[in-house]
Amino acid sequence: MANGTIAVSEKSFYEESTNKHSGILAWLLTTDHKRIGLMYLYTISGFFIVGVILGLLMRLELIAPGETIVSAQTYNTFFTLHGVIMIFLFIVPGLPAIFGNFFLPIQLGAKDVSFPRLNLLSWYVYMIGAVLVLVSLFLPGGPIDTGWTFYIPYSVRTGTNVSLAIFAAFVLGFSSILTGINFVTTVHRLRAPGMGFFRMPLFIWSIYSTAWIQIIATPIIGITILLVILERAFGVGIFDPALGGDPILYQHLFWIYSHPAVYIMILPAMGVVSEIIPTFARRTIFGYKAIAFSSLAIAFVGYLVWAHHMFTSGISDTARIIFSLLTFIVALPSGVKVFNWVATMYKGSIDPKPPLLWVMAFIVLFSIGGLTGLVVGSLATDIHLHDTYFVVAHFHYVMFGGTGTIFFAALYYWFPKMFGRMYNIKLANWGVGLFFVAFNMLYFPKFILGYMGMPRRYFDYLPEFTDLHVISTVGSWLMGITMIIVFGNIFYSAFKGPKAPRNPWGGVTLEWHTASPPPLENFHEIPTVTREPYDFSQLEEMNDESK
Amino acid sequence: MHQEETNHHSTGYGTYILVWLALIALTSITVTVAGIDFGMVALAIAMLIAAIKSALVINIFMHIKYEEPIFKVFLLVSGFTIVVIFVLTFLDVVNR
C-alpha cells in the first residue's frame, strides 16, 4: 500500500511534544491529534463509568416494587443524568473524538488534522460543557429531572436546574461541530499522495459521513435549546399553546437533530467494524463502494425519519404514515453493510482475536436492536409499545450493544498502536464472553416487560413484573463485574503490558505501517499510496519493513 | 494574506450599504405583512422574504458569490436538507 514509510523511529509521540512544556502542561497545551484523542479517551471513559454507576443504582432501586434505595425524585434525576451523560458525553463524541482524532490523520497518511488548534479548542469546549452539567447538579433547584429529551411543557415548568443543564448540551454541540469541520477539511485537503477517495479506509468514510451530520444537524438542537431557555426565562410562548405556540414543535425540533444524532453514534461504529473484519478474515472487504456509499445514504436518510419518535404525540395521520414508511428505508443501507461484512468473512482465514469477538457480539446485539426497531418503527405496533420498556430495551441494544460494544472493539483493536503495549488476550476473551451474557441478561427481560406493559421511567411497578426485574438487576451486577475486567485489563496493560510489535494483527491500512506508538508526526516521510486499502498481498512486504 | 485578498473580487462599500438598506426594507415589509391577516399565505410571504434576505447575506456579505464551486455545492446540499426538513414538518402541521 505504501512506500517510504519505514520508521527508523527513535521517539514516540509520548516522548516528543508539540510545545516547549513538559509534564501535564505538555498535554493540556498540545496540538498533537494523538494526544488530544487520548485526552478524550480518559475524560470520556471517566464519564462512561459515572453513567454506568448511575445505571447500576437505578437497577438496584428496581430490584423490588416500591421504594428501595432512593426516593422517586432522586430516581428521576438518576435516569435523566444517566441519559444526558451517556448520550451527550459518551456515545455522541466517543468514537469520532477518540478514535477519529487518533486514527483519521494516520489512516490518511497526514501529519495531523487540518486545524490542530481548533482540535484542542474542541476538547476544552467539551470539558466546559461537561463541567456545566456537573455544576447544574449542585446548585439550588436541584439536578435536572426531565429525562434526556427535555420535553415541553414539563421542562419549562419544573423548578430544577433545566436551563443550565441544557445550556451544557448547547456547549457540547459546539465541540461536536468544531470536530466535524476539522474532519471534513482534513479528508478533503490532507490525503496522502495516491490516496483517492476510493482508497480511503472505510473508517474514514464513516467518520466523514458523521462529520457532515455533526455540521448540519447540531445547530438545530442548539437553537432549540436556546428557545427552551428563552421560554423558561421570559415565557415568550413559542411552545405554549396559550400564547399561540405549539408544544409538538419542540418535539419536531428536538428529533430533527436527535434522530440524525443516532447515526452520529452508530456510523463510526460501522466504520470500525469495516476495519476489523478484513484484518481478522485476511481478506479484502466485500463491496467496498457499496459500504462507502451506504454510509452516506444512512447519513442522508437519517434526516427523513425523525417523527417516528412522535407517533403518539398527536401529529397528523398523514405525517405518521409517511414517517413510518420512510423509517423502513433506513433498513436498506444498514442491510447492505451487514450482508457485505458477512460476505467478507466467507472463505476468509478467520482469526478469532478479541477485537473480532467484540465485532461478533456487535453483529448479534445490533441485529436484535435493528430488528426490534422495525417493530417500533411500524405505526400500529408502536402505539402499543411506545414509552414502555420495549423501547428502553431496543435503544440499549442499538446504542450500547451497537456503539458501546464497538467502543470496546476499537479500544481492543487499536490499543497496541495507541499505547505500544499488548493486553492479556485470555482475559480479553473472557471479557467479551461475560459481556455478551451480562448484556442479554440485563436488557432482554426489558423487551418482555415492555410488551407486558411496564412503562419506562417509572420508579415503581406492579408485583407481577418482579421476576423479570430481578433477572435484569442481577444482569446489571454481572455487567458491572465485566466492566471492571474489560477496563482493568486495559488499564493494567497500559502500564505493565508486554511491548507490542508495530503490526500485531496483520492489518494493512496506514496506521499499521508506522511504529507502535507512532512518532510525533505519524510518519518520518509522508507515504505514497499505491494499493487498495485492504490489499493483503502486501503483508509479507510489511513484515520486511518492520525488520 | 493581503496578496491573496487582492486577487479576490472586492466589493465596494456602496454595494454593502445598498444590500444593508435592502435588508432593512425587507424586514419592514415582513413586519408590515405580519399585521395584515393573509391566513396561510402570510407564512409563505414571510418565508419568501426570509429566503431573499439570506440569499443577499450569503452571496454578498459572506462572499459565496465569488468563491469556488465546491463551497456552492456544500451550501446547496445544506439548503436542500433544510427544504426537505421543512416539507416533512409541514406534512404534520398542514394535515393536523
Low-confidence stretches of chain A: 1-7
Order of helices and strands of chain B: HHHH
CATH architecture of chain A: Up-down Bundle
Please identify the oligomeric state: heterodimer
CATH class placement of chain A: Mainly Alpha
Q: Globular, elongated, flat, extended or rod-shaped: what is the shape of chain B?
A: flat
Terminal CA distance of chain A reads: 17 Å
Highlighted features:
heterodimer; A: 547 residues; mainly alpha; Cytochrome C Oxidase, Chain A; two-stranded antiparallel sheet; 17 helices; 67% helix; 1% strand; B: 96 residues; flat; disordered N terminus
What's the SSE blueprint?
The complex is a heterodimer of chains A (547) and B (96).
Chain A: E1 2-3, H1 24-28, H2 33-61, H3 72-108, H4 116-138, H5 154-157, H6 162-189, H7 202-234, H8 247-281, H9 288-301, H10 317-329, H11 331-345, H12 354-377, H13 379-385, H14 389-419, H15 425-452, H16 466-496, E2 528-529, H17 539-546
Antiparallel strand pairs in A: 1-2
Helix pairs in contact in A: 2-3, 2-4, 2-16, 3-6, 3-7, 3-8, 3-14, 4-6, 6-7, 7-8, 7-9, 8-9, 8-11, 8-14, 9-11, 12-14, 12-15, 14-15, 15-16
Chain B: H1 2-7, H2 13-34, H3 40-61, H4 69-95
Helix pairs in contact in B: 2-3
Walk me through what this model shows.
The complex is a heterodimer of chains A (547) and B (96). Helices cover 67% and strands 1% of the residues of chain A. Chain A has 547 residues and is mostly helical. Chain A has a single domain, classed as Up-down Bundle (Cytochrome C Oxidase, Chain A), CATH 1.20.210.10. In chain A, helix 3 runs parallel beside helix 6 (162-189), helix 3 (72-108) runs antiparallel to helix 7 and helix 12 runs antiparallel to helix 14 (389-419). Residues 1-7 of chain A have low confidence and may be disordered. The model of chain B is unreliable at 1-7 (pLDDT under 50). The A-B interface holds A 216, 246, 248, 252, 256, 303-304, 306-307, 314-319, 322-323 and B 78, 81, 84-85, 88-89, 91-96.
